[in-house]
Design goal:
heterodimer; A: D-Maltodextrin-Binding Protein, domain 2; D-Maltodextrin-Binding Protein, domain 2; seven-stranded mixed β-sheet; five-stranded mixed β-sheet; about 45% helix; B: mainly alpha; two-stranded antiparallel sheet; 15 helices; globular
Chain lengths: ~450, ~300
Amino acid sequence: MPIDKLTRRNFLKIMGASAAAGAFISPREALFLAQAQAATNISFGGWGGVAEDEGVKAAIAHFEAEQDKIKVEWQHTPDAGEYGTVLLTNIAAGTAPDTSFIVADQYETLRQNGALLDITDYIQADPLLGQADYFIQPQESNRSADANGRWHGIGSTWVAHHIYYNQALFDEAKITPPGFADDEIWEWDNFVEICKQLTKDANGRHPGDAGFDAENIQQWAVDWPMWWMPLAAAVHSNGGQFITDDGLSGLDSPEAMEALQRLSDLIYVHNVAPRSAALTNLGMNNTQMIDSNRLAMGVDGSWALSWMNPGLMQVPMGTGALPKMKQPATIMQAHFHCVLAGSKHPQEAWEWVRFLSTPFYQTQFLKIGLWLPSQTALATEEGLATWITEGVHPANYRQFVSDYIPKHGVAARLPAGYIEAQNDYLQPAFDALANGEAVEDVFPKAVKQANQVLEANR
Amino acid sequence: MIDAKTTTPAKTKASRFSLAQRRTIVGYIFITPFILGFIFWFLTPALVAANLTFQKWNLISAPRYIGFQNIERLFNDPILLQSLKSTLIYTFASVPVGLIFAFFLALLINTQIPGIAIFRTIYFLPSIVPAVAGALLWAWIFNTEFGLLNAAIRALGGAKIAWLQEPSWAMIAFIIMSTWGVGGAMIIFLAGLQGIPDVYYEAADLDGAGRWNKLVNVTIPLMSPVIFFNLIIGFINSFQVFVQALLMTNGGPQNSTLFLVLYIYRTAFQSTNMGYAAALSWLLFFFLMIFSFIVFKVLGNRVYYEAPGN
């Protein structure tokens, strides 16, 4: 009933109703209200699709249910590519969040410029995170700690490349697919031969057969994308270094150039890989190609398991290790969780970043196939049992996580200035590689120019 | 004209301004939103950018004065040279192609046939499709293995083309794609065509002119102000091409589609070199200014304006 005029009678009615409502608030609720008012609010910036957004929201709900002193405000940007720009402009404007995701290739630049809080003392004082074997080592220290052993963030997780394969095409060709055990990892030459058997033109001929029509290939053996992670995996497998110990590009070493040339040869010499793979985000991607029996193997990041998994694909799916040149290798990286140096609540911000490095947060993304654990406890038999999910993780995935990754995974640490060096010089070299230009014509010059940028950013 | 005094005597008494002054004030009030917008969103950032040209600023630490280093870098930057080359090739190819295509379409839809409104809508529609959606659509059309364009080429017996992977083809792909958005220019041409009085064509008919002669001697001269306008706007827009390159190739392959604005964006927000990005922005501004000046000088007096004195 609307009150048109505040007569004395209406005034008394309102006051009476308010007093009655007040009487229903229990002392516990009153206490809660008081505490809520006393809670410290911190902000948390990051990106992600629906799954990541929901995961962060669930983590905030869990964190706030565990304690009542800190409230977290999630500042979400859908696109990871744009988040770096959003964060930088916020830092420039003095409105940076207290805590944030930090892209791997921006971490070193921000650390060098003092934008990230040194959290080493917090970690060392922490009874859980301070344990020497809490994180998978030495990979975690290799990416998080600087030359003086100081940490300015903690890796959110790990992701790494491996092979996704269409089991049906292997069965048809009577070939045993690769696995993650040391004796199941293919030698490079063997891999190339298998690729030839798995590639077919419209008449069912294989590369090397008389009359093979390279312009009309119906089934490709492999798609090895030409961007830094899958390229770097091959380089390390051949005994090279993507980033040298001095923090420079190592792609002009003989080992690196040999590895890169071998990847280009898959397309231009052996005719077993499609050219369109050069631009990964265009048109039909590896998932659609595998699902329509046009591709036997896709080299892709572990995150792709969240859609390229046995439960979601039409064709029977499996996973295996990348073939080895001199040694098995894959590149591991992921974004960081950091406290911004400008935060007015460093202690509370640390509490939140710490929470993100406990099992609850990581497990939600492990279950859907998006992430790999960075905490040792989640890679043990007992830990694996808490997240390995039937229909998502193939049977041999436990071995990938608990054995292959700790043994053969190489943590990438991208130096300050890497984004500029890559955009201006390395990516054009990768494009040239994808276009069939000889590695030795392209990489020595590009690496020299890229290293000038990296040296200027030291 | 009715004198204000006679219509509103009471108000006039209180007013301290003459009619002319009041009109001036009202005029300024009307243009104030634009002036404010211009000052805050164009002039101030441009001046800040001019100041940043002399600073080194990575957005994280405080800016530091470095003199003319950013300007010197403009003359020793191989990526800028590549970027300028790509931008100029794109501009000089896409603008004439786009103008001719838009003019041709305008001639086609300037007829009175049943359902012409539907054709006009169809040809105009792509220019209001968001650039992002258009870019994704074209990425599919240009796909090497499964794209529509290569399917057509192969059906005609040609070999497949790696449209977006090979530097020389990527530029051609972008020029082809630019014709997709000519709807805006087409509508302006159409308005121009409909503004040509029929008497000229009737006179041409009497002189025995055919279609081609009417087009060359009546339509095009009378359309010259509109063509000139679309030319200038086309040049300015194509110098600033950005979204498609960002989404479809991210400047690649081999920096062949790294247009100037994309390079500015990258330098500012990915390489975090705001000072140099500011210098690049001013370079673009000078380019556009000099370019517009040349076009006005060279072509300006060839434009026929139907006005007293002509």
